[in-house]
C-alpha cells in the first residue's frame, strides 16, 4: 500500500472527512491560497501595472450595483485599480508574511525549547526566564517595538526595500515562546526514555540525539501550534499594515488595502475596504478552524 493509500485509510483522513465544517474550511482556505499563489494568472487585471490604470475608472461600484461594470466585479479603488485583483495580489503578500514569520518563530522556538529541555540546569532556567519575560508583553506590542527599533537603526532609504523582512522578523520574534515551552515540556519527557539512553550508551553526541531522535518525537504539537499561529500571523501583519508600519504601499497587503479603503468608507465607497476585510476574515477563520481540527485529531485522548 502506497503512502497516498495509507493516508486515505488513516484515522486523520477519517476524522477530516467526518467533519463538514473542517471540509468547508479546507476548501475555503485552498481557494484563497490558490487565488493568491496564482494571482498573476487568475487575476483579471494587474493592479501594479501603471500603464493599464486609468483614473477615470476610479470609484466604480461592484458589477451588480448601478454604475458598475462587468470589467470590475468588485469595483475599483481611488486609483482605478480592480479591487478583486488587488485582493488576490494583496493576499499573496499577507500569506507570504504569515508563512515566513511562522517558519521563523517555529525554528527559533523549537531550537530554544529543545536545548532547554535536553541540557537542563542553568541553561534551561535562563532560557525559560527569558520566555517568561516575553510572555508579559502582548505579541502585537513586541512586533511594533521591534519594527520601530529596526526602522530607527537603519537608513531611511533602506526602509521600503527591507520592510517586508522587518515585518516577518517582528512577528516571528514575538511568537516563539509557545513553541519553546511546548517543545521543552515534551523533551523533558522524551530524554528519559530508553531510546535516548541507548543512543547515549553507543556514544552519539547530544546534538545528534536531539536532532535525529528527540526532535521527530516532539513535532506533533508544534505542527498544531504552527497552524493556529498562521492565522494570528496574517492578522498581525494586517494590523501592522493598517497602522502604517507594515509592508510599504508599493507592496500592499490586505491590511494596507483595508487602511486605504477606510478613508473612503463613510463617503459611500464601502467596497474598497469591505471586500478585503471579508477576505482577511475568511482566511484567518478557515485557518483557525483547520488548526482546531488538527489539534483534536492528533489528541490521543479524543480518539
TrEMBL record:
It is a multi-pass membrane protein. The keyword Transmembrane applies. Its main location: membrane. The chain crosses the membrane at residues 21-43, 93-119, 131-150, 162-179, 218-243, 270-294. Residues 91-291 form the ABC transmembrane type-1 domain. It comes from the Bacteria. InterPro entries: BP-dependent_transpt_permease, MetI-like, OppC_N. Keywords: Membrane, Transmembrane, Transmembrane helix, Transport. It is found in: Cell membrane. CDD domains: TM_PBP2 (cd06261). GO terms for biological process: transmembrane transport. The keyword Zinc does not apply. GO terms for cellular component: plasma membrane. Belongs to the binding-protein-dependent transport system permease family. This is ABC transporter permease. It comes from Elioraea tepida.
